[in-house]
Design a protein that fits this description.
Belongs to the 'phage' integrase family. XerD subfamily. This is Tyrosine recombinase XerD. Its main location: cytoplasm. With 300 residues, the protein is mainly α. The chain is 54% helix and 3% strand. The chain contains 14 helices and two strands. Helix 6 runs antiparallel to helix 8. The radius of gyration is 23 Å and the shape is globular.
Length: 300
């Protein structure tokens, strides 16, 4: 099968049948475009001509690029290539998977950066008082910290997703749904936004079921949500780096520090594996040291 057609078929598969997000599909598309370009330059235009040795040379060439790609980017590239060839075998287009012996590079384990509780509280009250967009921004920030939602999940919420009172329905990766509790602070902030601000924003644009709307009535984008977070961090005079994932990291870290079971945090975050969640247990090592220092008779 022609490589360009094989890649198109695979991208349709992960979009329609697997339901991956537009952001994830876009990353796969970019990776496979690099792969296709390299194979074309090597005179390979059919899937049957791709061997394990060919893929090995491709990865070696990519590793040698200056500046070299980060280990995480190289790992994702390999994942994209493996996904393509596994798909071709499953669909009966090819008999063998030439990527079967491909091993991902070791990526350094990075501990997620979490804010302190004091920093979070300053961040949440940073949006200006009674201004409509300030009320919206406060609701967004409170909801992100209260639920541990990804930014993409928060901006993808519909008003009906709040219909269950003190719980919220989130749609995660692969369109998987999960139910998470919503604390009173977040609920009050969202209620204030729904009653005092959202009707006015909705009147400015086309009818939309989305919970969070922009100044012109269109659904709030991920990029706009990121700007809300960055602006709040600047207002709160937080010098630590604050990214779209910071409140999610802080949510998980503070739950574990408060005694929550890692399996419960896994469920709330929507992680498929508890191993993904366990990285947050390392963040609390300072707390363990403090407890040890004050509790053990021979610690000092």
């Amino acid at each position: 099968m022609r490589l360009d057609r094989a890649i198109d078929a695979y991208l349709r598969h992960i979009t329609i049948e697997r339901g991956l997000s537009e952001h994830t599909v876009g990353a796969y598309r970019r990776d496979l475009a690099v792969y296709l370009s390299w194979l074309t330059d090597a005179g390979i235009d059919d899937t049957t001509a791709v061997t394990g040795a060919v893929i090995g040379r491709f990865i070696a060439d990519r590793s040698a690029v200056v500046p070299a790609p980060a280990a995480t980017s190289l790992a994702r590239l390999q994942s994209s290539v493996r996904g393509l060839h596994r798909f071709l075998v499953r669909e009966g287009i090819e008999v063998e998977d030439p990527s079967g012996r491909l091993r991902p590079p070791k990526t350094p384990q990075r501990l997620p950066k979490a804010l302190t509780i004091d920093q979070v509280e300053r961040l949440l009250v940073a949006p200006s008082g009674e201004e409509p967009l300030g009320i919206r921004d406060r609701a967004l920030l409170e909801l992100l910290y209260a639920t541990g939602a990804r930014v993409s999940e928060a901006v993808g919420l519909d008003v009906d997703d709040l219909a269950h009172g003190d719980v919220l329905r989130l749609r995660g990766k692969g369109s998987k749904e999960r139910i998470v509790p919503v604390g009173s602070f977040a609920r009050d902030a969202v209620d204030a936004y729904l009653t005092r601000v959202r009707p006015g924003l909705a009147a400015k644009g086309k009818a939309s079921a989305r919970l969070f709307l922009g100044a012109r009535g269109a659904p709030l984008s991920r990029q706009s949500a990121w700007l809300v977070i960055r602006s709040a961090a600047e207002r709160a005079q937080i010098t630590a780096e604050v990214s779209p994932h910071t409140l999610r990291h802080s949510f998980a870290t503070h739950l574990l520090q408060g005694g929550a079971d890692v399996r419960v945090v896994q469920e709330l975050l929507g992680h498929a594996s508890v191993a993904t969640t366990q990285i947050y247990t390392h963040v609390s090592v300072d707390t363990l040291r403090d407890i040890y220092a004050t509790s053990h008779p021979r610690a000092r």
